[in-house]
Amino acid sequence: MSNASLAARVPLRRLYDGTTIPAIGIGTFGSDKYGAEEVSNALYGAIRTGYRLIDCAAVYMNEHQIGEVLHRVLTEGIVSREELFVNSKVWNDQHRAVEASCRQSLADLQLDYLDLYFVHWPFPNYHAPGCDGDSRNPDSKPFSTEEFTDTWRQCEALVDAGLVRHIAMSNMTIRKLEAVLPQCRIKPAAIEMELHPSFQQQALFDYCMERDILPIGFCPIGSPSRPERDRTAEDVVDAELPAVRQAAEAHGDHPAVTCLKWAVQRGQIPIPFSVKEPQYTANLRAAFDDPLTEKEMTAIAAEDRNCRLIKGQVFLWPGATDWHELWDEEA
After folding, report:
1. Which of 13, 95, 109, 169 has the highest local Cβ count within 10 Å?
2. Percent of the chain topping pLDDT 90
3. Under CATH, what is the fold of the domain 3-227+236-327?
4. Which residue in 60, 117, 207, 280 is the catalytic one?
């Protein structure tokens, strides 16, 4: 089957204004295992395979190489710009310079506009790339509605200027959304959040769906390649959850594919990452091949263990007790 045929079989979701977006995408975060060249080479193959949604970020330090790939696939006629849906994100240390950050991403990606631009984290707390889990920046501080609103105003200006089509948020909580949504002139089209069978965030998921804000799920298979700083002994391995394994065996799938089928059928957009062609091809096909049964979906829904993998502890501020404070769990 051709790449165009596979792309055509991927279901579409709709943003609040009717714009369509593929129901599955590919991430570009190489973690601490894959360099920019490996990620970009895999992306070229993934686009040829049929991926059309590409999730990027300035902090991944590979947008320049990804831009070369985008230029190549457009020049070769593999896809048109209109067929692609490209995301990027403003990093924490650029919250006071959003337009400059966006323009740099556009230059690196060799694009005239972005389809979706995220505020990567809801506070300007910065850490150096590749730092360990115990790193702390003494200038870090708790979430501020006023500062976030200022950042969001800058994002709204990007839409006005035609630099981005839609704007979005990431790593939010209901408490933070309750504070900032009333301040938005342009509401977020999507919220990126950690979503996988052992961490389903049902309350936040429902909150977004009820407000026509599309959930985009990172770590959809439990992020086996996440950085070492984000690993703890208590973490659950999604591929080993009984309901996931049972469904995988019933369908002849790898458990990772089962996690993706669950995500797509639940209604979120998963953005898995892989540099291996058999894996990213199987991941793409999960969006439309041999869906899970209602009974299997119910069984996987019951596997929620509230196991957050990306805890964000490097963003803690002086005086904070632990990473739970980042996620408003005391509320």
Report:
1. 169
2. 87
3. TIM Barrel (3.20.20)
4. 60
